[in-house]
Amino acid sequence: MLASPSRAQTPTATPAPAPATASTGTRVGGYVQLRATTQAHQGLTFLLQRARLSLDSAFPNRISTRVLVEFQSATGARTPATVSLREAVVRWAPSTVSFAAGQFKTPFSREYLIPVSMLETADFSPVVDSLAPKYDLGVMAEYEPAPWGKVSLGVFNGEGSNASVNRDSVSLWVARVVARPFAPVSLGANLARDSADSLRWGVEAELQRWGGLLRGEYMRRHRHDRPADLEDRGWYLFGSARVVPAVSCFARHGDFQRPAIGVSRRVRESCVGVNWECVPDRVRLLTSVVRRTSGARQSDTRTWLAQLQVRF
């Protein structure tokens, strides 16, 4: 039943051109995601989930650049359509040590570092979406001595994407370590220091074997002024299996809690679905059912979702 894992399961955080010492080149790419959703007692809703355009360039001396923008549609009569910058990064990889500067994903969380166009599910899990630092402006160094390990360390403004200044003058430090003791197994740890009294950390594990994939993460946010039992925390467990070369099935369950605020902020989510690679690496159809339990009454909502993605 299980075959080799899909390309969406590779550990590459951001698709980027392979740097070369003498050759140069530029590639224009991107993707469009069209989504349809429906819930009980509600009609069918169509939306343009994402439309992104990327420009990857390679230069001599192992220097590469990447620019990624998103075309955002209008959300109302008074909200015009805009173009938002997602990534603008320069990378230099002279050896086993590489450097990056600009705006890009901070090195925290295995799931978040998977490119959106290669993510197996329609959206990130609630704990990753809530606790993982997102796009930010800063610099990062990475050391990858061999396929069995990688270390990343970066310092960022901590203000999020497209912020022109560091308003609180406190930098966000993010560190990530990944070890692969065996080819099918990957273990990782993440650390993000927001300020003197705030620290986010997470651990992760991934197993790829016989065409199947198991991945799990646990995250927590520590604050000096908050007891341990009131800290924000959560986890998820994801599994997938390739049934035939073009079709894979997946399931994910997760729980995110903010005890200091109350039960109304607890989110439990389960989803099951199927990915069909209509045209390998180009056209993918994702269908899934998502059950979410949240709110003061911890009520359930079920969403049926279909998403068509076209890459170019």
List the keywords:
single chain; mainly beta; 16-stranded antiparallel beta barrel
What is Rg?
20 Å
Structural class call reads: mainly beta
**Strand numbers in spatial order across the main sheet:** 1-2-3-4-5-6-7-8-9-10-11-12-13-14-15-16
Beta-strand fraction estimate: over 45%
Mean pLDDT: 89
Listing every helix as H and every strand as E from the N terminus to the C terminus, the arrangement reads EEEEEHHEEEEEEEEEEE
For this entry, what is the oligomeric state of its chains? Answer: single chain
Question: What is the end-to-end distance?
Answer: 31 Å
Largest β-sheet summary: 16 strands, antiparallel, barrel
User: In terms of per-residue confidence, which ranges show pLDDT below 50 for 5 or more consecutive residues?
Assistant: 1-22
Percentage of residues assigned to helices:
under 10%
Shape field: globular
Number of helices: 2
Number of E-type strands:
16
